[in-house]
C-alpha cells in the first residue's frame, strides 16, 4: 500500500520476533503503518496476570496504549492439549519455566505426551487479538485452529509449537506449511483478518 495513504501508526505490543514477523505479513494490507517497541524505542514490562488469552491481550494492548498514546495491538495465544487438561494454555510461552527456549518447551510437551495414543492427542491453537485506541475504545477478535500433537518435531517454518502441531487435512505440521498456507488458516491469521475488517471500517470513516 502507498505509504501516503496510510492513516497513522499501530504499535505491536510485543517484542516476540516470531510474532512480529507474522503480524507484519498478516497486516501488510492495513491502512496503517505497523511499528514495534524496538522501532519506537519503548521499554515496557507488562505483567500478564490474566486468566484467559483475551484478558492478557487486553492487559498488554491497554498498557502499551497508555504508555505511548498510540493505537496498540496485542495478542495472547497458545496451545491447549486435551490430554493435558488444556495445558499449557495461557502459559504456553512460559511452559516449563521462563529460561526454556521454544525447542525445550516442545521437547517437554512431547515428553509429557509420551504415552498418549494418537486418537487422544487432539489440541488447538487459540489466539485473542485486542486493539486499544487512545480514546478508550477496545475490540477483541479471536481465532482457533484444531489439530493434533505429533510424535516428533517436523518442519522449519513458524515458531513455538508449530513443529509438533499436526494438521490432518494437510498431512503435515504447521511448521511444514509455507508462509502463505499458514497465513490462510492459522489461529492468528483468523483473528487478524477480523481485525483488518475493523481497521478498514475505521479508515473509511
Keywords, separated by commas or semicolons:
205 residues; alpha/beta; Maf protein; 22% strand
Averaged pLDDT: 93
Annotation field: number of helices: 5
Regions with little confidence, pLDDT below 50 for 5+ residues: none
Encode the helix/strand succession as letters: EHEHEHEEEEHH
What is the CA-based Rg, rounded? 17 Å
Number of strands: 7
Strand arrangement across the biggest beta sheet: 2-1-3-4-5-6-7
Query: In this structure, how is the largest beta sheet organized?
Result: 7 strands, mixed
Task: Give the second-level CATH assignment, the architecture.
Answer: Alpha-Beta Complex
User: Which structural class fits the helix and strand makeup?
Assistant: alpha/beta
Shape: globular
Count of folded domains: 1
- Distance between termini? 18 Å
Classified by CATH, the class is: Alpha Beta
The proportion of residues forming helix, as a percent range, comes to 25-40%
Q: What percent strand?
A: 15-25%
CATH T-level fold name: Maf protein
Written overview of the protein:
The chain is globular and about 55 Å long. Helix 4 (179-185) packs across helix 5. The chain has 5 helices and 7 strands; from the N terminus they run E-H-E-H-E-H-E-E-E-E-H-H. It has a single domain, classed as Maf protein. The protein has helices at residues 17-26, 53-68, 102-112, 179-185, 187-203, and strands at residues 9-12, 33-35, 71-81, 122-132, 138-149, 165-167, 172-173. Strands 2-1-3-4-5-6-7 form a 7-stranded mixed β-sheet. The two termini are 18 Å apart. The protein has 205 residues and is α/β, with parallel strands linked by helices. The longest helix is centred in the last third of the chain and has 17 residues, at 187-203.
Amino acid at each position: 500500500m502507498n505509504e501516503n495513504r496510510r492513516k497513522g501508526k499501530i504499535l505491536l505490543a510485543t517484542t516476540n520476533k516470531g510474532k512480529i514477523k507474522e503480524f507484519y505479513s498478516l497486516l501488510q494490507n492495513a491502512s496503517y503503518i505497523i511499528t514495534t517497541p524496538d522501532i519506537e524505542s519503548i521499554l515496557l514490562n507488562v505483567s500478564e496476570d490474566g486468566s484467559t488469552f483475551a484478558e492478557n491481550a487486553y492487559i498488554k494492548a491497554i498498557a502499551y496504549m497508555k504508555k505511548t498514546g498510540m493505537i496498540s495491538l496485542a495478542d495472547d495465544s497458545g496451545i491447549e492439549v486435551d490430554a493435558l487438561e488444556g495445558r499449557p494454555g495461557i502459559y504456553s510461552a512460559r511452559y516449563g519455566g521462563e529460561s526454556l527456549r521454544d525447542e525445550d518447551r516442545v521437547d517437554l510437551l512431547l515428553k509429557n505426551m509420551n504415552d498418549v495414543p494418537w486418537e487422544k492427542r487432539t489440541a488447538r491453537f487459540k489466539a485473542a487479538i485486542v486493539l486499544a485506541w487512545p480514546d478508550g475504545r477496545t475490540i477483541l477478535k479471536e481465532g482457533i485452529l484444531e489439530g493434533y500433537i505429533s510424535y516428533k518435531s517436523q518442519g522449519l517454518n513458524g515458531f513455538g509449537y508449530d513443529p509438533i502441531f499436526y494438521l490432518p487435512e494437510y498431512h503435515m505440521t504447521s511448521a511444514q506449511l509455507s508462509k502463505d498456507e499458514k497465513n490462510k488458516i492459522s489461529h492468528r491469521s483468523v483473528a487478524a483478518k477480523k481485525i483488518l475488517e475493523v481497521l478498514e471500517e475505521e479508515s473509511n470513516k
